[in-house]
Specification:
- By secondary structure, the protein is mostly helical.
- The protein has a single domain, classed as P-loop containing nucleotide triphosphate hydrolases (Rossmann fold, 3-Layer(aba) Sandwich), CATH 3.40.50.
- It has 5 helices and 2 strands.
- A two-stranded parallel sheet has the order 1-2.
- Helix 2 crosses helix 4.
- The protein is globular and about 50 Å long.
């Protein structure tokens, strides 16, 4: 199950990556590789509405099945807003926090 490791493996280093919805929408909409795997929308607004709808449905499903809210930041060891970061910056920050976590 996707995004479930934080709950299924409690002893793991749990990371929550978040992003501004408008930035997420633009990333998905403009990513040619995703166009084949996700629904194709004609406008950013349609894409955004789909992302919001799927996010809500997924959260409802997690709560219904497991009684947990995956978006609750208290479930994680490290929360990172990726809105203004490159993938390399995200990886570097996760690695640094993971090393700190190992030392604790």
């Amino acid at each position: 199950m996707q995004d479930f490791g934080w709950y299924a493996v409690p002893q793991s280093f749990k990371v929550y990556l978040k992003v501004d919805i408008d930035i997420a929408t633009k990333r998905v909409y403009e990513d040619e590789a995703r166009r084949d795997s996700e629904r194709k929308f004609d406008t950013l607004e349609e894409q955004k509405n789909d992302i919001i709808k799927r996010y809500k449905l997924e959260n409802e499903r997690y709560f219904e099945l497991y009684g947990v809210k995956k978006e609750d930041e208290n479930n994680y060891d490290f929360v990172l807003d990726t809105s203004k970061l490159t993938p390399e910056e995200v990886a570097d920050k996760i690695e640094a926090e993971y090393k700190k976590w190992l030392e604790e």
